[in-house]
Amino acid sequence: MKKIINTSKAPAPIGPYNQAVLSGNTLYTSGQIALHPETMELVIDDITSETKQVMENMKAVLAEADMTFENVIKTSIFISDMENFGAINAVYGQYFDEATAPARETVEVANLPKYVNVEISMIAVKS
């Protein structure tokens, strides 16, 4: 059985999708970009603040499903410029314990929604 996960503490979906879907004990999140949940304005002053907003949005989605970053087993990071990898990785790393960090891929893409610089999605499991 699937359960739809949505929270007002993360940006509302801007298309025909939900913030996340819980299937059994596994949570599949949609990609998050740096939209501020209250204003729906992009936070793109610099790559550090942009990545932090993405991670805070993801934190809110996980919390709505009664999970934390400790539950995350896989992440996908899409970036528009591999030159930003170091700065994105530095912010991302603040949300995980390196010893138990999830599996991950980071892929450079031509464009992202609203022409942002980073989008992150996650899979988490509640044990």
TrEMBL record:
Pfam family, one: Ribonuc_L-PSP
Family note: Belongs to the RutC family.
InterPro entries attached to this UniProt entry: RidA, RutC-like_sf, YjgF/YER057c/UK114
SUPFAM superfamilies referenced in this protein's UniProt entry, alphabetically: YjgF-like
Superkingdom of the organism of origin: Bacteria
Organism: Winogradskyella maritima
Designated name of the protein: RidA family protein
Species classification: Bacteria, Pseudomonadati, Bacteroidota, Flavobacteriia, Flavobacteriales
